[in-house]
Amino acid sequence: MLVRNALTRNTGSRYYSFTLLAFTFLLLAQNTYAQLPPVFAGDKRAVQKEETVRTYLSPTKILWQSTTDAANIKNAARLLKTGDGQANLSGKDLCILQNTATAKASLLLDFGRELHGGLQLVTDQSRGGKPIRVRIRFGESASEAMSNIDTVKGATNDHAMRDFEISLPWLGKLEVGNTGFRFVRIDLLGDNAELKLKEARAIFIFRDIPYLGSFKSSDTLLNKIWMTGAYTVHLNMQDYLWDGIKRDRLVWVGDMHPETSTIAAVFGNSNVVPKSLDLARDITPLPEYMNGMISYSMWWLLIQHDWYMHNGDLKYLQQQKPYMIALLNLYLKQIDDNNSEALKDGTRFLDWPSSTDPKAIHAGLQGMLAMTLDAGAELSTILGDPTTAAKCKAAVARLKKNVPDPGKSKQAAALLGLSGLMPADKANAVLSAGGVHDYSTFFGYYMLMAKAKAGDYQGSIDAIKDYWGPMLSLGATSFWEDFNIDWLPNASRIDELVPAGKKDIHGDYGAFCYKGFRHSLSHGWASGPTPWLTQYVLGVNVMAPGCKVLKIEPHLGNLTYAEGTFPTPLGIVKIKNTKLANGKVKIDVQAPKGIMIIKSVN
Known about the structure:
This protein is α+β, with helices and mostly antiparallel strands. It contains 16 helices and 18 strands. It has helices at 4-7, 142-145, 220-236, 253-266, 272-282, 294-311, 314-319, 321-332, 358-382, 386-399, 410-419, 424-432, 444-453, 457-467, 469-473, 529-537; strands spanning 19-20, 23-24, 53-57, 61-65, 73-74, 95-98, 106-123, 132-139, 163-168, 173-188, 194-206, 214-217, 540-542, 549-552, 561-568, 571-579, 585-590, 596-599. The strands form 4 sheets. Strands 3, 4, 5, 6, 7, 8, 9, 10 and 11 form a 9-stranded antiparallel beta sheet that branches. Strand 15 (561-568) and strand 16 form a beta hairpin. The protein is globular, with a radius of gyration of 26 Å.
């Protein structure tokens, strides 16, 4: 059984003053509709106000240019200066790109970290006042920005345009693009053409919200991993909660579970979660499954449980009751006479790396169904439906009578261990075999939690460093859709042009739907270490709805200290755990009034 404090994603609570890219995050007002000028009085059209803001960032580096000949590109460093977005008549301090009949001018800009948004180009006067044609290529890696749309390396324009041609105005400004990127290549098109650029800035689109949760320990790599997971999810908190900012910019409910866990740990309550959950519900009439996947409607139920435990919003939970009870009854009908899950009429899916193993999928779904019905029993009790609660509990007891063999599948072992269908130590034996080989960025979260349930906290810490750490060593500033440590030998970094003799970590690898450059390098489902470190190392476990009771139970492993904050509906909780000379851990907690703190030291 996935126990309540394991289901709930908990985290630090002090206001975390965090400067991102030289500006401070402020709390954004949560209006749904825009305030229009008085001239719109009486206008009945529907108006939506975006809940994001736009910030303009200059590139940090000219990573590559097509020629070092000053006759082709002059003053490229001008683009690194702070801009103001305004064309002017001075004609001074411009980056000038010039083509001949045989030589073409191109630049590759590095904006320093993964961003969501587009590109703003500010131009000077052009010959004859005519528009200038350019080609723009966005990339999450340097090599992707240098690639062509093809069927060899997987570069695409799926979901977001990343490779296209446009015309730039004479003495003006153009904003273009809406995608996930760090790098932009600009090619001047046409023979004997000339482009005078004043600015080429990234348009960074994000929710302007504070990082209320925080994590700091004696291990700087763990600290960086925690923050990278938080930032990855922040990028995907657009008008709705997406799984990726370049590709699959959709509300995928399964992907949301690690993301909502991270949001609870870092940002606290955010309307992007219920808004996205409600969208998934409203477009999925029963007996359909969300996103067409049997497991994704189960994730919807599990998220509802976790979100209620963290925020304690009973009114919102009650709004879900009709759909939720009907969905639970749909699942209750799909257990056969052998006490085995018999889920059908949807895609049987855990995650991509396990998708070709039917036995692993069955074992995983058996465990996940038990987790879902266990959470369903709690939710039904809260919603005043003891009949459904009793049916859920009885079904879980039946599922425990038939425990499938997970084989070598770490995904299946994790779910069986978390559900209680398999002893935690037995599940951990499967998870520990081969270290972080066969981990996945999505289900890595549940592998870590299952190891923690077995008491293998140091093993989990090591796995975080060994699996998520190499992405950072390859230049990642957000976590990827998938990663395999077998890709590491002779791999290039994503922030360099691939040196001769090296493998392109982006273009040469990937599988299933994420081959080559189609692979997303900012995927929210990969953020699992962030809520895991908050729950198991910082030690925050939610024991009552609305965080009214918190159990602080840190497991430092070989760390000497871990401190941080955790956001609750009642305010920020501050925690500091220090390992003493005798090996015991001292816990210091400051909590707002109304929160009961239970300290537990093993």
